[in-house]
Fold this sequence. Notes:
Residues 12-143 form the dUTPase-like domain. InterPro entries: dUTPase, dUTPase-like, dUTPase-like_sf, dUTPase_trimeric. Residues 126-145 are annotated as: Disordered. It comes from Candidatus Coproplasma avicola. The chain has 145 residues and is mainly beta. It has one helix and twelve strands; from the N terminus they run βββββββαβββββ. It has a five-stranded antiparallel sheet with strand order 2-3-12-7-9, with no helix packed on it. Strand 2 and strand 3 form a beta hairpin. The longest helix is centred in the middle third of the chain and has 7 residues, at 65-71. The N and C termini lie far apart (46 Å).
Amino acid sequence: xxxxxxxxxxxxxxxxxxxxxxxxxxxxxxxxxxxxxxxxxxxxxxxxxxxxxxxxxxxxxxxxxxxxxxxxxxxxxxxxxxxxxxxxxxxxxxxxxxxxxxxxxxxxxxxxxxxxxxxxxxxxxxxxxxxxxxxxxxxxxxxxx
Length: 145
C-alpha cells in the first residue's frame, strides 16, 4: 500500500518501520528544540507531516514500548485515530505518566503508526437483542470463579 506524505516542515522525518515484520511505523518528533513534559502533563508533539490514507483505512497511533516503559511517555488518549479524510498535521498528544519531568528531543521516536482497515457500521435501533450465554455480563464476568 502506498501512502502519500506531505512534509509540512522540511526537517520532518517520514514514518519508518523498525524491522521487516513491524506492524507499526515509528513517528518522530519534529519540534524546534527539546520539549519538557512535566509529571502528569500532556504536550502536543508535532511530526511535521500530513498524510493521505486510502479510503477504508485509518491510522492508529500507539505508544512505543521503550518510551513508555523507560520514560513513562505514551499517547494521552491511549490510541490516537487518524481518519482517512484528515489532511492536517499528524500530532501526538504525549502524556507523562511518571513522577519526574521527561524531555522529548527533536527527531526522537515518540509513537508508532499502525494502518488498518475499518468497517463503517449502519446502526439500527432494536427493541430486543438476541440472547447469548454471556448476556449482559462484563468487566471480568467471564473469568474463573
